[in-house]
Queue: 4 jobs
Job 1
Amino acid sequence: QTLAALLARQQVQGSMVIASLKSGQTFVHDDVRAGQRFSAASTFKILNTLIALQEGVVAGKDSPFKWDGQVRSVANWNQDQTLESAFQRSCVWCYQQLATEIGAQKYREYLHDIGFGQLQEPFNTTTFWLDGSLQISAREQVAFLGQLYQRRLPFSPAAYDTLQAIMLVEKTADYALYAKTGLA
């Protein structure tokens, strides 16, 4: 009820899914919305990073992206990047470069094999995760994250290790918080 009040105060709709890997217990706010598919948007950068690493398009968190000099609306995109900074800053042009190198067929294969949401055909290889061609529900996202955490997806240990390193947001003696920001 507190979450519902917060969302109402901000005049936004939202859902939340919290699932325990140990007990299997799941808490859901707005069950109907949690099952609806929406654009994957920046959350796709989690899987996209793994695919790029697995396919050898990038070698690690320090893999460079050379800025093309084109000024974009997000100030911290207007400079050279690394895979780590591109992920943390949600740098679209960097991931569009990766997408061009990965190619549509590889994306089809990975999305199908992993069962990541629904991809509408035809799709634009450099925008499908942004333009609504790839949609996924909150429930599907949480299931994907569970598989990711348990390393049950078809990626190398090195790919998992690199992703884990760049997703780390905060670490204390008691916990580590891994996240991906985004807005759609």
Job 2
Amino acid sequence: MGRWCLAMVLCLAWLAPVQAAESISRPQMVISQMDDDPILSVKAFHIMREAYRRLGIELRPDLLPRERALMSADSGETDGDLIRAAGIDARYINLVPVPEPVVTFDAVGFTTGLKFTVDGWNSLRPYSLCIMRGMKLAEQGTEGMQRLIANTTDQAILMLSAGRCQVAVLGHQVWLDIERLHAGPMRALDPPVASVPLYHYLHRRHADLAPRLAETLRQMRDDGTSATLLVDERDRAIDAARRRNSLPEQ
């Protein structure tokens, strides 16, 4: 028994530095991720996790409110921000974009019955709007318009349902939230107000990773990996919720 115990101690002592070396060889990075977007941001995280894995890095999310997520990435509290529209680095100067889109986001106008022709952001100007705090695309696109700022997706939906605004600018995935909140029926205006590519951002201390991640994302797009990771069973649930909670076409 004594010899067996001694052998185990020696084995564990030998394994410890090996495991430590493996940990050192696989560095980790923590990325800010919006905590109120369980569909698109989760898909984007799967894509970016695979891109980092191919570079020998383990990616972990830090789920935060939209604005707080950006501030944490810009301050260096996290290593970057998962996905944002192009150009946010003009304001958040410590963030460096990876010059290859991760996913595409459709900004959709939702109403409780109002119907009009959507032709870009300026077509929303005659109406009162609800937009999300931290959704920079909508904040910039509706600047100077009559608008209320919601802190969460649920709040924006309930504000629209209560008549506090005529149009809420959200993503199509909110049909699940509309159903959960019993806020329907509603109408999603077509076409989207804007359809934009979203990019991954790094804190400037990791700027050297940007071109390597861009090339990896291009490889993943070309070999079909990104398309595979974008397939999600929740898409069918969103379509079903849309059918159940949509107003009939006039």
Job 3
Amino acid sequence: MKYIGLATALLLSACTSVAQETPLEQALADQFDAAIPAHQSATVDLNADGFDDALVYALGPDWCGSAGCTLFVFKGSAEGYALLSKTTIVQLPLAVSAQQTDGWKDLIVHAKGVGAVVIKASAEGYPLNPSLQPTASADDLEGSEVLLDYN
């Protein structure tokens, strides 16, 4: 009888335990209607507000083409994450620059046929197309930190 009680307690415990989603997983589920694509992600405070922001590099045929994949930037807050912007045709590596624009750190990504470029934030977030952005200079690269790379 003692063992049956223990087994029942363990079974009930397993059935009632619910896996908690992280705030980033919740934001991704909301963004992708629960069909979260394969991705790489990193968190870093891009705007010095004390909350980590999330960089999500979506993978797979829906998000990648011959020129690269889609990068989503989510702004972090006490309530979780909200989509700030998306940038298509991004190639890795992705680095965060020591430089900033409008209070947001610049990002350094690669664009097919262009090489390393700087994408700078504006009121609308980061630009959609990195191939139209300026090539990264030595100053942009100095002090930058690679957050996502091909592994």
Job 4
Amino acid sequence: MSEARLPDAGVQERFVRVAEWAVERQRALVTLGLGSCVAIMLHDPGARLAAMAHILLPSPSLSRDRENPAKFPDTAVPFLVQRLLAAGADRHRLVAKLAGGASMFATLMTPGTVHMGERNVVACRTALRAAAIPVTGEAVGGERGRSVRFFPSDGRVEIRTVGGDELVF
């Protein structure tokens, strides 16, 4: 754990909502209230470019609407890579960070059941492995929601957990 930090003065934010994506060079990418959803964050430190997708489900087979590439890990990762490359990123410098994937209602589930959050995390790791993008940091699992700020300038991620401390990596 890192000590709590005040928000960077003057840093503007771009919000990424459920099943949305964004690529930024200047503004911090922010997503609020990650429960079982997962934020996939890609960063090119050389180009100071960042991308985020707010993943909702582990597989398109679980949804009627399968058109949105940001909704599922196996479509979000290649989509974000494509968008980053178009913005000037170098494919070989890309690294990933993950946040979310909580089991928000674990006490209500049958013991031994694989929760949606866990399924989302596994699917995100699988998609990143298939794209040969290393995961350099993550805050996943547990039973509490998270909010995330991701900074393109240095790839820093600030995570606030409901009822918990701030984590920076």
